[in-house]
Amino acid sequence: MTTETDGKSNETHFIPGQPVEYVNPELTELEQAKPGRTVNLKFGFGPIPSNASNKTIFFFDIDNCLYPRSTRILEMMHDKIHEYFKNNLNLNDEDASKLHTDYYRTYGLALEGLVRNHQVDALDYNSKVDDALDLHAVLRYDKVLRETLLKVKKLGKFDYFWLITNAYKNHALRVISFLGIGDLFEGLTFCDYSKYPIICKPMRQYFDNVFQLTQLDCTDEAVLRKQWYIDDSELNVKAAFDLGVGHVILYIENEQDMANLKKHTDYKKYFAGNGRRIELLNNFSSLPDLVGP
Ligand SMILES: [Mg+2]
């Protein structure tokens, strides 16, 4: 066990490249006993050993990708952010909504606007927004998801499974433990809210950091072409595709979202061209078929 909690800030400390084990204190003993409830990341938050360079890695986004939107976690998160704007900036409902939307449009992350313009402590924000979400109430042990990921693993095409998220590490670890998939990944790259400026997807620096931590030589086209990545964000998958990642998948579960996507002027370029393109997946259980034999 290489992680510890200092009790005061509930911050998990870690040693670069060392395994990370996380036991979710919110789970009952019975819940904890199921496979995948304890998180075990062999290479922790990276870097992976330098003698394991240029492997074939499947990168997975977490939120709204490994669990469905019907959990309404996105809406729960919006409510918490709204409360945070109201309480910390002393705003009424209307002004809080306006500013939240404004920052989201300008910076891509509401948090970025808070840190930049109001000197908000990003880790305080994280403790009151992401870490305060009642995930236990909405995220069930997902046997079907677990079997789907195991099927993909058994295809034998991948050296490692790696999580990449715009959330902070606490949220990521909680989510995968609730879902019961904490033993299926070698590592995790998170958005480090303790650093400024905040580097998140779809920024180039975020992906560069991921490639560095997973020992992928991103100057070598052939290395990037053999990597796999799935995310529910159109912006993120386009960014990875533009960087040269070979197998990029947009997870899009909602039919209306799919219809809207098809109206975009760059739809053909990214999703329907001959040759290399972003694949679309509307049912996560079909992932093994998409990856192929
Ligand atoms: Mg997502």
From TrEMBL:
One of its GO terms (biological process) is nucleotide catabolic process. Pfam families: Hydrolase (PF00702). GO terms for molecular function: nucleotidase activity. InterPro entries: HAD-like_sf (IPR036412), HAD_sf (IPR023214), Pyr-5-nucltdase (IPR010237), SSM1_domain (IPR052791). It comes from the Eukaryota. This is SDT1.
